[in-house]
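Quick review question:
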């Protein structure tokens, strides 16, 4: 399928972010030309006059729990730990894989209407999330959400092998929920996986002052220092939120 978009303002995010006027050619799932309008020998299945509107790369949402669409406005204006322990975790325990498939699909459709074309999703049942992403044509990078109550380091390793190379829209990274929900033995198993695959690891980190204080009391270190001491980040990685960091 050959598609031509013409009479467009195009922002490629290169060359000082200066827009250009021109056209974009798409062949199947690949952009093959971006530039000034010019003749082509290709047969166009679709030609669309963009009428001077702006075309730019899709936005990427770097941290999502997409299936949590069902909790929107369920419990507002609470401290994070109360919100999680008293409201979110009990409701999430009732979810089935089919629930997560449909709730993720709702999120992806909402993302697409906002110009978001890819996300980095951490949630409970990767199999149903992957299917929802493929069915909506949405690009998803998944990361493990293992903790003391769901998933396991072994499962995260299986998903890492299964979903990297599984489909052009899907990839998988190692990860866990947070220091305060994940015991040391699981973290050590994840660190071993990181070294086995030479892969980065992702997690929530230092979201609340209480989380940091608790980690200092248990381990004599901040969450970042403690996780780093277990060699989880020897091949890189990332933290989500990171509100209460020290200099």
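Suggested answer, residue by residue:
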């Amino acid at each position: 399928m050959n598609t031509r978009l013409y009479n467009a303002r195009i922002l490629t995010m290169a060359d000082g972010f200066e827009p250009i006027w021109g056209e974009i050619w798409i062949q199947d799932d690949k952009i093959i030309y971006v530039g000034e309008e010019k003749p082509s020998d290709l047969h166009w299945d679709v030609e669309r006059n963009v009428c001077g509107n702006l075309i730019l790369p899709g936005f990427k949402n770097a941290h999502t729990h997409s299936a949590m669409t069902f909790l929107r406005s369920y419990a507002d204006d609470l401290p994070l730990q109360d919100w999680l322990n008293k409201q979110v975790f009990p409701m999430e325990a009732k979810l089935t894989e089919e629930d997560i498939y449909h709730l993720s699909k709702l999120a992806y459709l909402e993302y697409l209407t906002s110009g978001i074309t890819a996300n980095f999703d951490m949630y409970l049942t990767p199999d149903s999330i992957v299917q929802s992403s493929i069915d909506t044509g949405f690009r998803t990078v998944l990361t493990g959400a293992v903790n003391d109550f769901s998933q396991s380091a072994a499962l995260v390793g299986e998903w890492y092998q299964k979903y990297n190379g599984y489909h052009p829209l899907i990839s998988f990274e190692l990860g866990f929920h947070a220091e305060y929900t994940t015991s040391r033995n699981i973290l050590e198993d994840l660190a071993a996986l990181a070294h086995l695959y030479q892969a980065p690891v992702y997690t929530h980190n230092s979201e609340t002052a209480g989380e940091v204080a608790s980690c200092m009391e248990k381990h004599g270190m901040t969450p970042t220092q403690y996780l780093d001491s277990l060699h989880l980040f020897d091949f890189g990685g990332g933290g989500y939120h990171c509100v209460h960091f020290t200099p």
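Why it works: The longest helix spans residues 97-113. The longest strand covers residues 2-10.
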